[in-house]
Amino acid sequence: MLPLKVLVADDHRLFRQGLISLMKTRPDLVCVIGEAATGTEAVRLAGELHPDVVLMDINMPDGNGLEATELIHQRFPEVAVVMLTASETEDNLYRAIRLGASGYLLKDLDANDLFELLIGVERSEIIMTRTMGARLLKAVAGSSKPRDGEEELSERELEVLHQVASGASNAQIAEALTISVNTVKVHLRNILDKLRLDNRTQAAAYAVRSGLVSAPQSAHKESGDVSHG
């Protein structure tokens, strides 16, 4: 795996420079290719530098992190945006994921956990701590109900849905069910179509609401406990 190309977006220079210095200790995993102090600058540099991931603060001048995340997701969908913020509010968490963020991490995260979680970006996973994952499921469970007329899921699709809600990546699902990753993707697409949902996060919330798993089990990672998304 090549090092992830990272763009750091945060308006606090001291934090930004400290994070960049931290990233330089793991050149095998990450390579910082740019830094931004505003939301507008983050969007511009995402287009110019083509990073694999943007580590995005929320509260920034000239276009906040949420607005920047939405624009990057729309204009450069191949770029993953991971919020790195001090905000623990469910509103910001839910909005970030809805606007296209690939993860939501808090600034008090342990450095080793940050690096381990960032590996999930390469696998197109949604990355966050177990605590924030549980909050996200709680926030979206009531708003992700399938509309009337949903189709019944097959037994295999239910197995895949259970795995998704338990926090497994596509590769982990494929291994658990002894199928290919491409087959997992097909099942996921069918699940979303049948339930009339938009993404795997909403699918996980549906599984929680339907009683397949409990919310705490569905989250991805507690600080110091590696898992997925």
Structural account:
The chain has 229 residues and is of the alpha/beta class. It folds into two domains: 4-122, Response regulator (Rossmann fold), CATH 3.40.50.2300; 147-218, Winged helix-like DNA-binding domain superfamily/Winged helix DNA-binding domain (Arc Repressor Mutant, subunit A, Orthogonal Bundle), CATH 1.10.10.10. The chain is built from eleven helices and six strands. The chain has helices at 13-23, 39-49, 65-75, 90-98, 111-122, 130-141, 155-165, 170-177, 181-195, 200-209, 215-218; strands spanning 4-9, 30-36, 53-56, 80-85, 103-106, 127-128. Strands 2-1-3-4-5-6 form a six-stranded parallel β-sheet, sandwiched between helices. Helix 6 (130-141) crosses helix 10 (200-209), helix 7 (155-165) packs across helix 9 (181-195) and helix 7 crosses helix 10. The longest helix is centred in the last third of the chain and has 15 residues, at 181-195. The chain is globular.
